[in-house]
Amino acid sequence: MYWRQFLLVVMTTSSAVAKSVRERLPGEITPIIAEQSFIYNGHGPRNAIDLDLHTQSQTYDHGSGNPIWLKLKLPNLECIDEVVEFNSDGSRQYTWTCTDSDCSHCVGEDCRLFSLEVRIEGEVPGNLDSYSDCKYGDTVVLQLLSDVYIMAVFEIALVGKVPASVTVKKNRDVQDFLWF
């Protein structure tokens, strides 16, 4: 009887762990750096991109009145199609769709509480491919716009095109290096 109970506990635990892992979306780009305005309760920014739906990043203004944000840096200049924020059950909470000028179109219950910006902080090559359905950038910033003092992100995914003018090899090398 003891062994049956032990086996049931192990099987139940294994099933729960398996369900907490988010699968990458087709075309998903892996950030190399995650930062946030402040680490709250030990919930750091890497939790938003670790593919684990049971972890989350949490940031707040800690009474300073400063903006509350999560910043993701990419290994290369990319053309971002959409940004998806997930709930802890793996369902989509917010989806931002990008054009060549911005990523302001959002689907979700409280989109008005956030701004999402794709921007270029590194060097800009002169020969970028032209797309109307994505925004070029090497940095994505999600900012809380409301008076709510805390922002929690279970998972966030960046989906994009790989422009022909950008070398893919560097991106693959960085992704292989990132697995932890």
Layout of strands and helices, then pairs:
Elements: H1 2-19, E1 28-29, E2 33-36, E3 57-60, E4 68-86, E5 92-97, E6 105-107, E7 114-119, E8 135-144, E9 150-153, E10 155-161, H2 168-178
Antiparallel strand pairs: 1-10, 2-4, 3-9, 4-5, 4-8, 4-10, 5-6, 7-8
Give the overall shape. globular
Oligomer: single chain
Distance between the termini: 38 Å
Secondary structure: helix percent: 10-25%
Unreliable runs? 1-18, 166-180
Largest sheet geometry = 8 strands, antiparallel
Q: Got a strand count?
A: 10
H/I helix tally = 2
Q: Would you kindly provide a brief summary of this structure?
A:
It is built from 2 helices and 10 strands.
Structure description:
- It contains 2 helices and 10 strands, in the order αββββββββββα.
- It has 180 residues and is of the alpha+beta class.
- The protein is globular, with a radius of gyration of 18 Å.
- Strands 1, 2, 4, 5, 6, 7, 8 and 10 form an 8-stranded antiparallel beta sheet that branches. Strands 3-9 form a two-stranded antiparallel sheet.
- The protein has a single domain, classed as Galactose-binding domain-like (Jelly Rolls), CATH 2.60.120.
Descriptive terms for the model:
alpha+beta; 16% helix; Jelly Rolls; two-stranded antiparallel sheet; 180 residues; disordered C terminus; globular; 2 helices
